[in-house]
Amino acid sequence: MSSEVYENHLDPVEPKWFAVYTRFKCEKMAFRQMARKGIAVYLPLQQHTRKYNRKIRVVELPLISCYLFVKITKAQYVQVLETENVQGFVRFAQNLISIPDHEIDLMKRILGETWEVHAEKTTFVKGDEVEIAVGNLTGMKGTLVEADDEKTQVLVELERLGYTLRISVDKSILQKTGSVKLKSNL
């Protein structure tokens, strides 16, 4: 018989963020159903432009497919699982681990960003450690993975989720830093 002890971050009083799996392409429906139940829920959406033969449409798609984020206490755990289109909680080696507030805030900041910048000439090369110097993402650090004439792509790691986000930003708002790990510095 195994006497393994599993870690569970659910708290009876303090609500914490957890990731939830949904059925494929059912994130928005599950989001609405949980919101109706009064559960604090976050669905990171990004806008994509789709071109069809006769029209162009802007659609909102989840940043991470089949994921929702809920901020709950222990009493709301079953309520989340009973929501239609919810498959279960994201677990790490059978452990129910909460997601730090700063990682949720990072996703919100990334998706809510609008850029107003002034151009400055700086030379960047792939692999440079960089920091965003302007806007809502000021202070976020990452590694440059692509650089073209106008936009660059930066990697930012969400440690608890095990995902790395690739963000396209204007070169003019980046500055080089020393040796920095792939983390946001919030």
Write out the CATH superfamily name of the largest domain: NusG, N-terminal domain
Secondary-structure arrangement, i.e. CATH architecture of the largest domain: 2-Layer Sandwich
Please list the strands of the largest sheet in the order they lie side by side.
10-9-8-7-11
Give me the CATH fold name of the largest domain. Alpha-Beta Plaits
CATH hierarchy, class of the largest domain? Alpha Beta
Give the N-terminus to C-terminus distance in angstroms: 44 Å
Our Rg estimate from Cα atoms comes to 19 Å
Question: How many separate helices?
Answer: 3
The gross shape turns out to be globular
Q: What number of domains?
A: 2
What's the order of the H and E elements?
EHEEEEHEHEEEEE
Multimeric state: single chain
Low-confidence stretches: 114-121, 179-186
Strand percentage lies at 25-35%
Q: Structural class of the secondary structure composition?
A: alpha+beta
Share of helix, binned: 10-25%
Mean pLDDT metric: 81
Strand count, sense and barrel status of the largest sheet are: 5 strands, antiparallel
Beta strand count = 11
